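User: Could you go from structure to sequence for me? I need the amino acid at each position, not a summary. Structure tokens:
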């Protein structure tokens, strides 16, 4: 069995990938049932921001168990067919972020979250206050991340992220 790859600490590379890919999958879990939801996100200062409907399964699951992970990935180049069982690698990169999520209930914090989210995509974003009555937000305090880039014929790079590291 091959030796596991140990990630090299590199917050910059993990954050580069996370900010370059606008859509990922938020994974929640209650008791024994996982639930995965594609979502777009904003990332700032070690936090992921999501907007969503004010009710629903993912919010119920986060309230029951705030531990989540968020996965973003990108495929690049030609996938091609594997040559044989030793040549089945593709051209892709991904980030998996783990953390603790919370649903925003306070209106001022909701306003701040929406401004962060909106300005992430558009620096001139202006908030429509009435939108706050019809939506909710989730903030994930990221506790760790791993990122991986695999390029056929060039190998694999594997990085880790932790709060407060360079």
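Assistant: Here is the amino acid at each position, in order:
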């Amino acid at each position: 069995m091959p030796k596991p790859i140990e990630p090299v600490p590199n917050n910059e590379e993990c954050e580069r990938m996370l900010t370059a890919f606008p859509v990922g999958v938020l994974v929640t879990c209650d008791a024994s049932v996982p639930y995965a939801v594609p979502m777009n996100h904003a990332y700032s200062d070690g936090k992921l921001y999501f907007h969503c409907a004010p009710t629903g399964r993912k919010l119920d699951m986060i309230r029951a168990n705030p531990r989540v992970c968020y996965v973003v990935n990108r495929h690049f180049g030609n996938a091609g067919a594997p040559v044989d069982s030793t040549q089945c690698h593709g051209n892709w990169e991904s980030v998996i972020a783990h953390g603790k999520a919370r649903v925003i209930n306070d209106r001022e914090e909701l306003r701040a979250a929406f401004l962060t989210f909106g300005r992430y995509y558009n620096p001139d974003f202006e908030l429509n206050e009435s939108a706050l009555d019809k939506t909710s937000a989730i903030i994930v305090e990221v506790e760790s991340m791993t990122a991986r880039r695999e390029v056929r014929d060039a190998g694999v790079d594997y990085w880790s992220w932790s709060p407060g590291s360079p």
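One structural detail worth keeping in mind: The domain at 8-161 is CATH 2.30.110.10 (Pnp Oxidase; Chain A).
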